[in-house]
Design goal:
With 428 residues, the chain is α+β, with helices and mostly antiparallel strands. The chain contains 16 helices and 16 strands. The strands form four sheets. Strands 1, 2, 3, 4, 5, 12, 13, 14, 15 and 16 form a ten-stranded mixed β-sheet that branches. The relative contact order is 0.20.
Length: 428
Amino acid sequence: MNFKPVYIVDGARTPFLKARNAPGPFSAADLATAAGRPLLARQPFAPEDLDEVILGCASPSADEVNIGRVAALRLGCGNKVPGWTVMRNCASGMQALDSAIANIHAGRSHLVLAGGVDALSRAPLLYSDAMVRWFAAMSTAKTAGQKLGLFLKLRPAVLLAPVIGIVKGLTDPVVNLMMGQTAENLAWKFGISREDMDAYSVTSHQRVTVGQDSGHYGEIVPLVGRDGTVYARDDGVRRDSSMAGLAKLRPFFDRKYGKVTPGNSSQITDGAAWMVLASEEAVQRWKLQPIARISDSQWAGLDPAQMGLGPVHAATPILQRHGLGVNDLDAWEINEAFAAQVIGCVRAWEDEAYCREQLGLDGALGTLDSARLNVDGGAIALGHPVGASGARIVLHLAHVLRRTGGRRGIASICIGGGQGGAMLVEKV
């Protein structure tokens, strides 16, 4: 496979803000604009010099359906720079990067702003189909008697019960499982205990805490609310996270037999992440100084009921193409949808039968060194704004390699619907 490297020139993201049972202070377009403005302002080219803007978003609002174009215009790219939106569930931000890479490889673009966003706190509450039909009948009723008859049939407790949009969005319509239930499947498959999950989650919070205190999140640009409130950090991290505290939480997806709780799952969050991607020609033309390059990418499909193993199926072909073992990489970013899901990926690579039967390998790939995995924590502590996470992990991996002197790493993500995505990132 001849994969021509595409350069990561620069990147920025907002703090990830935890949803708190009410609409957050920023719309998705607000978040994308706030992350993009300082990023573009520090470049040697003007926003109008971009060839295109590509934004991943899993849950755009009704007034921001093509949110990529909305963001491009609000960022000052002008009328002539195309802006478009992609959606691949949890990997929408990574898909935006891959779409940019494809266009750069094809010669259609040389300089692209690509990333992802979601404001999940603003996911809508919906009417049921029965209530919509009631409204439809009322709108066509012509007499007072007809309208009175409809009012007499109205049962508010039943018809007005809201349909929670995010619950529907996080439920696979093919296997009829919520994403957390697929994590329960992996816990059963690989014998992952509740203690394993909670211990992993505590580590995620601890690593984010150390990362924040050590200044390891330099890609973050602060947000300022309409009331003047400054949001400078990811606010979902629990600095007091402990095994004892997590043990108090009850399973959420399988309340009788389950092990997956809100504490060992990723948080529902609002956030945006962008990267400037460039061809070799654009790097030379604008005298850019890239921070990393994307040297390979891969998408994979698998059983939707075990979607959390997507990173294994996507990253393994990259390892094979480049003759690498799991520990030949200096750093890994595997998005933490659930603790059981990340642990499941590690155990799948250790499992000889799984590697033979599902990955076509001669045997187990090996044990991934935990010191190389999500070194600054992950979505369990940071949050998982679905459309943004794929871009976030690629951007942060580039920063990790630069900070630690590492040569290369893989960012990978599981995707609702039974898919996985992965990208090989190398330091320039």
